[in-house]
Structure formats: C-alpha cells, structure tokens
Design brief:
Blueprint lengths: L5 E2 L17 H74 L3 H4 L1 H18 L4 H24 L6 H105 L7 E2 L5 H58 L6 H29 L7 E5 H12 L5 E3 L6 E5 H17 L8 E8 L3 E8 L31 H11 L4 E5 L5 E8 L3 E2 L2
Parallel strand pairs: 1-2, 4-6
Antiparallel strand pairs: 3-5, 5-10, 6-7, 7-9, 8-9
Helix pairs in contact: 1-3, 1-4, 1-5, 3-4, 4-5, 5-6, 6-7, 8-9, 9-10
Length: about 525
Amino acid sequence: TTQAGIAFSCPPGWQRVSCQPRPRFLPMLQQLNTKITLGFVVAVSVLLLTSGASWLSMQQLGYYTQRVEHTYQVLQLTSDLRMRIRDAQTQVRGYLLLRDSAYLREFPASLAQARLDLRLLRGLTHDNPVQQARLDSLQRRLELEATALQRWQQQPPSPKAVRDLVRTGEPNQRLLRGLIERTKRHEEQLLAQRRQGQIFFKTTTPVAIVVSAVLAAVLVLWLLTRISRELRANAALQQELARTNADVAQRIHIIEQLAERVVQGDYSVKIRDEEQDSLGNLAASLNRMTQTLEDNFSALENRNRELDQFAYVASHDLKAPLRGVLTVVKWIENELPHELSPQMHQYLGLIKGRLHRLEDLINGLLAYARAGRTGQQLEEVDVQQLVREVADLVLPASFRLETPGPLPRFSTDRLSLQQVFTNLLSNAANYHHDPANGRITVSCREAEDCFEFRVQDNGPGIAPQFHHKIFLMFQTLRDRHTAESTGMGLSIVKRIVEEHKGSVWVESAEGAGAAFLFTWPASDAARP
C-alpha cells in the first residue's frame, strides 16, 4: 500500500475477463455430488429391497412353521378327543358286562377330559369358520352321548343291557366318529398346504439372504471405487481452488488495508484494479468513495474555517456595539442622575437588561457551535473531585451537594464532561424555587459499556408535557425577560453528550424535583 495506489491481478486459474472460476470447476463439483448421492441412493435402495425380501421370507417361514405346529396340535387334540369318548364308552360297557364298578371310577374323568379337549379345539380353530361349525355339531353329539352313558351307568349290569347300549347308541356314535374324522381330514389338508409353504420359504430364505449379502458387497465395492475416483479428482480440484482462494483472500486483504487507511483519515489511497468482477467493482466503488470523502472533508474544513471566522466576528464585531450601547446607557445614568425621571430610570434598566440578554444569547450560540468541535484530550479524571470543583464555581453557598456513592475515576475528555456538569448544576441552581434549602444529588451506576450519571435536585420539577421542550435551543420555562434564562444550557448538554455517543433525558414531575440523566462512554474505565 502506497500513496500511488494498490494493485493486483487475476490468478492463473481464473478467467481473465470475469475473474471467476473456470466453467469446468462448478460442473465437476456438481457432478461429484450428484454421483455420490445417486450411488448412495441406488445402494441403499437395493439393500432395502433385498433386506425387505429376506425379512419377508423369514417372516413367512416363521408363519408357516407356526401354522404347521398349530395343525399338529389340532390333530393331536382330535385324536385325544376320539380316545376320551372311546374310553368313556368302554368304561360303561365294561361295568354293564362284567358287573365291576371299578370301571365307573374313571368314567367322570374321561368325560371331563373329552369336554376339555373339545374346548381346546374350539380355541385353536377360532379363525376357521368351517371347523367351528363342525365343532358345534360335535359338541351337541358329545353331550347326547354323555347323557346316554350317564343314564346307562345307573342301569343294572347284564349282557342284555350291553346289547341295548350298543344298539341304541350306535347312530350317535357313528355321527360322532364321522364329525371327528371330517375334522381330522380338514386339518390334514391344511397341514399339507402349510408344509408346502414351509418347505418353499425354508428353501428361498437362505437364498434371499445370500443374494442380499452378495448384492450389498458388490454395491459397496462399486460405490467405494466410484467415490475413490471422484475424491482423487476432487482433491486436485481443491488444490486448484485453494490457490485461487488464496489470491482472492489477498485481494480482499488489500481492500481491508484501504478501508483501514480510510478509517485513519488517509483518503488519498486508491486501488488499481482492472478486473471486471465483483471485487473489481468493489474496488472502483471504494475509489469513488475515498475521492468523495476527500472532497467532502476538504469542503468541511472550509466550512469549519468559515464557522470559526463567524465565531470571531460574532464575539468581537457583534458584542462590541452591544458593549458601546451599554456604556452609553451607563453614561446617561451617571451624567444625568437628577434630570432623569423614575420612569426613565426604569426604561434605561430595561435597555440594560435587553442588552445583557442579547450578549448572553450570543455567548450561548457560540458555545453551542463550538460544543463537540474541540479536539478530545483524554486524561485521567476523578469525577468525584470534578463535581466538587464545578459545584464550588456555580452553586450558591446555600446549596448542598450530595454524592451518596463513589463516583468513577476513568480516562475521558475532561473539558467536555466538566462542561456537562457545569450546565446541569447551574441549571438546577438557576431554576430552584427555594435556594435557601437547595439540594443536588449526583450519583452514578455502571452499565455494560458506559456510565450512567444522575443529577437530582429538589426544585419545583418539570411537568411531563415539557420534557421534550427543555432540550431545544432558546426554550425555557421561565419568563423570557429573565436575563439568566437564555435556553441554551441544556441544548449544549445534549449536543456534547451525543457527540460522545451518549444520550440524555429527564425524569421529573411537577412539584417533585427533577433528575437529569446522561450516559458517558466508559472506554479505558476503571471501576470506582
């Protein structure tokens, strides 16, 4: 960076016209992302399909295995039911034929077990309406057979009773055997179907698992190969982009250096950049900005010199006639003390009051114009001592100054802060309705990056509708004919505070005193 300017050129990996990456770079990046994304999508899709097929095959194998076991249970219960009915019939016949009551001891258990087997069969075939209807008929026939057998066991034993039992019970027993046989055949048909499904899925499940594993391995290998190839190409691309990014970073650093020089007040620095890209346009805009700033600051310096000249004229050429007129009035009072009537003395007093007020207004305008324009000289300031010194200068002896807590000590512009406290304390004293009992309290609290000072008095207070008015120029709540009330003090306070990036406001109600608060930057501040 020199006064002659700052220059840079396009890097070799970039187009000369637009200073942007060559068109092949972006398609390569997009192609790499597309290939990786597509490869993952295909691999995941195939894996999901094969895994889903394997899972479905295993589920079906488990289902058919469960149904086969279920069918075996039904067939076993059917055989058990047939055996229980036969046992019950045999026990009654043995009693009638052999006259041995020992046969009847097992009869209730056989009959109860037959009924239990029937209930279990109904539970196992609840999802088969055909079997449920068949078991309903079987239950009716079983109850008829049980009733008949219970009746015959009460008959006297004899061979004739056995023949009658067989002859009368044969039709119902034939129906029972037929129902049981049909139930068994139906389950055997279901067993054959379910065994076929079991055998099919027992064969296809390992095949599906093996195919899924092979496809997964092939897809992973293919994907790794493609990604490795693309990553090598991407690494070369990244190296080239890193070189171009370094060149762009250097250009941005040069622009930052220009901005820093502008912040330091050097507006003559320029960037020589002939590239037609965004950074080149930015460099051209910065050159125009620095030129504009240089022109504006030159004009501002001229205006400041004119303002200083005006201040000089106002403080000498305007105030000199005022002092001359005031001197003439005093001469008249001194030379003609007896010739002037009391009314004439009153008129001359009014003239002197107007002249003093005009002089105060000129002084206030000059103070307002110069507020914040003087160079800031940072120095260590003890605010506690500063406030005491200001109070000794501007407050009447009857006023009492209080500082409830310690005020800070920090590095700041002493003259500006002193002027703020001077105007606030003198304003509180001038507007107090009972100077003999006047009291002013100055306190401070530390905010995040500033100090908030509070100047509280016990004066007459300010009505809320006038809070916005008191900080305007020439605005006062007292009679305009009062010489002390030029209406410039708080305006100067507002300007100085805002020049230091702070804010000022008032908290007051009529008859309850007024509190003026302002914030002041705490840069380089030390805690009290």
